[in-house]
């Protein structure tokens, strides 16, 4: 007993040093990782304030020697930047709103209504989730050309107006909502649409917000789809517009970086405000 | 014989004339209710089903049909399996398939391994945990196409910071014009984009391991590595499988950073399958052949996704 008491601090002391060393090295590793990961953002931000001659000089420097806002003022006239921004808002916002309505209606039927063929339809939704959308691009482009929808907002939005993952995600959520309230409403003779609209949807607001966030983020950031549906600069979204601008004017770094910052800003701000919803939504669904 | 002799209560009631009429009425009402409910259900699903049918299923099937033709915007002649035969012999396809497999085979284990390491580091009580977690996660929510513009400049051998800094610590790098380095850089950016996503999935997996298990192991004097090998790793197996499959599917469909940084070059050294579909379909208008390539991608992704759904369902059970 006495021996044990005397030895205890000694045993505890050694791991303490090891623990502190481990702790310090953990911080060093994490700080390094964070720096590398954030470097493109830091560099983009700092470069957007540099004069063009400071950007292209050798040796390169991270921090600006000069400071200018001219890239932020020029970008609106050099690129139809306001137009690109508006297109992106319309595209990502339109897809998000319409898709939330269509997805939730379908999910409601699959989760709450009993009808023949329900399981087959659900299976179809699952299979659709497994397909890479790239395979549809060529026929879709042909279809949009026939409809005259190339270079239009509806061409961008309508083919994305529903999403198998969204249906699947909301169906799972609806299944977890207790049925007591609706049963009472059904006995009182409420229509299914009313139950969907006034009982189930309000209870599903957290799930709808998470899904809406994913839809918005995914479409705001998307490159390939807008690249194919839009061929005119006037109709492009920010990722496609800036990527193509880079291809044509490869030397105007400052302008590109100012445009990049403005294009990244909405998602970054949204992330900083509602970080928890982003992270938890992804952790529980595995969707990006 | 014996069945017939048993008088069931329901059957007895059914024999009474009034009861039979009532039952028939009940059945009719039920079936009309049933029909109405089916109609309601399909009305609810109509918008989504129309969109899926017109913009997803029809194009899928049509892509398969096109892949048996030489469709090129102006005309389409049935060529049978010619496109698929061409695939087997086409060096450009072998190249794109090879690049896709190399890209995926390196990017997937690298991002999953790093994600596990980051998650283990971040799962402890450390100061600034939220900041580190948010930093690693930031690339996930931002546009890869736009971030790749910055990356393109950062790795530029003439004015880029990275080659300059790496050169200072004795690491010689080459730019995007170098065949091997172009692939290395697009892999680096691919890992950078997704590692935060997988880290978050691993953090969720780590949260689900009961703390008492670690306390018990610590009391038993298990060393950290032993604890990881015998407890953490096996208990994270489900997460690892799941993350691995989604990482693989994402890698097979890589496009954005390659389009921005190398456009498939130099000399098609970074041309992946999706890049090839884009080039063939939308720049060279060999749409029949491009459709055949896209169906190869479908088969690859479908196989992997099938595995994913299996694990997805397993995970769902836990919640």
Number of strand elements of chain B: 0
Unreliable stretches of chain A: 1-12
* Integer average pLDDT of chain A: 87
Separate helix tally of chain A: 15
Q: What's the total helix number of chain B? A: 15
Rg of chain A from C-alpha positions?
A: 26 Å
Oligomer description: heterodimer
Q: What structural category characterises the helix and strand content of chain B?
A: mainly alpha
Ranges of chain B where pLDDT stays below 50 over 5 or more residues in a row are 1-16, 315-319
Helical amount of chain B: over 70%
Key features of this structure:
heterodimer, A: 288 residues, mainly alpha, globular, disordered N terminus, B: 319 residues, disordered C terminus
Structural summary, described in words:
The complex is a heterodimer of chains A (288) and B (319). Chain A is built from 15 helices and no strands. Chain A has helices spanning 2-47, 52-55, 70-78, 81-112, 118-130, 137-147, 153-157, 164-175, 180-187, 192-203, 205-221, 224-229, 238-248, 253-273, 275-285. Chain B is built from 15 helices and no strands. Chain B is flat, with a radius of gyration of 29 Å. The interface between A and B is large, with 97 and 99 residues.
Summarize the structure.
With 288 residues, chain A is mainly α.
Summarize the SSE layout with pairings:
The complex is a heterodimer of chains A (288) and B (319).
Chain A: H1 2-47, H2 52-55, H3 70-78, H4 81-112, H5 118-130, H6 137-147, H7 153-157, H8 164-175, H9 180-187, H10 192-203, H11 205-221, H12 224-229, H13 238-248, H14 253-273, H15 275-285
Chain B: H1 2-5, H2 9-15, H3 17-66, H4 82-89, H5 91-122, H6 129-141, H7 144-154, H8 161-168, H9 179-207, H10 211-219, H11 224-235, H12 237-252, H13 256-261, H14 273-282, H15 287-318
Helix pairs in contact in B: 4-15, 5-9, 5-12, 6-9, 9-12, 12-15, 14-15
